[in-house]
Specification:
globular, single chain, alpha/beta, Aconitase, domain 4, 7-stranded mixed sheet, 7 strands
Length: 168
Amino acid sequence: MEKVAKGRAFVFGENIDTDQIYPGRFVELTDVEDVAKHAMEGADPNFVKEFKKGDIIVASTNFGCGSSREHAAITLKAVGAGAILADSFGRIFYRNAINLGVPLLVCPDISKVVNDGDIVSVDVESGRVVNETTGATAQAQPMSEYVMNILASGGIKPLIKEQLENAK
């Protein structure tokens, strides 16, 4: 995981639910490459055509509300989101994403600081966000050491596996 993510911002509004992030009609897909092809399809059908690995997703309030399916977090990891910034997140989606190693940062009023297409850099550890297009800055809630360890390991399962191997 990169401690500083930098990329083009893809901005979404409020209450983007898990079915917009990854439509339920695709839940039978199991190959990660197939899953990635449908990222954000319910909110923006052209998202995967324009999104490049490392780009940044920005949203208003309650991003990831809705069902508890992990598919929404899996598709954003699979598409290579550098970071996801939102005023707030759905609680279950937030934990699913962190547990899968996707960097999510709660950043109050970020949707007022970043416009679609802006170039944004995010220091995942400190929470400092810089809109390199406009020069505006924002401060996200910094990640705890524990969450940073999860992200650095690529998810909670790899972290636990590593800890168990080191305990032998």
